[in-house]
Amino acid sequence: MYKYGFIDAFGTGFDRTFTLCAKAGVEYKYREDEFGFTFVFARNLLSTDDKINDRITVKENPLDHEIIEAVKDNKFITIPELSLLSGKSEATIHRHLDALSKSGKIRRVGSRKTGYWDLL
Fold first, then answer.
1. Which CATH number describes the domain made up of 62-119?
2. What is the pLDDT along the chain (120 residues), one digit of tens a residue?
3. Where are the domains of the chain?
4. Angle subtended at Cα 107 by Cα 104 and Cα 108, rounded to the nearest 5 degrees
5. Which of 12, 15, 17, 25 has the most CB within a 10 Å radius?
């Protein structure tokens, strides 16, 4: 890449990587291999209250929030009622309820006719 002018100098990223890792206390391993080189960074597992970094944030979907609030008010609310309340189609409500179920925030207890929503 240097020979074709895509980079100004070869290897300048190494010093920056080593410096930033030392400053942030990140453990890493560097090794040369058949592909050239490999960096392996150790991840620290954080609790859910810890901030991962200043660039990645988890945004709550407004419709998911609306569905959860509606279920808090009425655990027997139906998908057609959620559709009317939110102004979204029943298919969209199904999709969001499936995602909320898979993420462990909500579950359906009982049948479609006589069951209810349980917030987890």
1. 1.10.10.10
2. 556 666 666 666 777 777 888 887 888 888 887 777 787 887 765 544 444 555 555 567 889 989 999 999 999 999 999 999 999 999 999 999 998 998 888 999 998 888 999 988
3. 1-57, 62-119
4. 165
5. 17
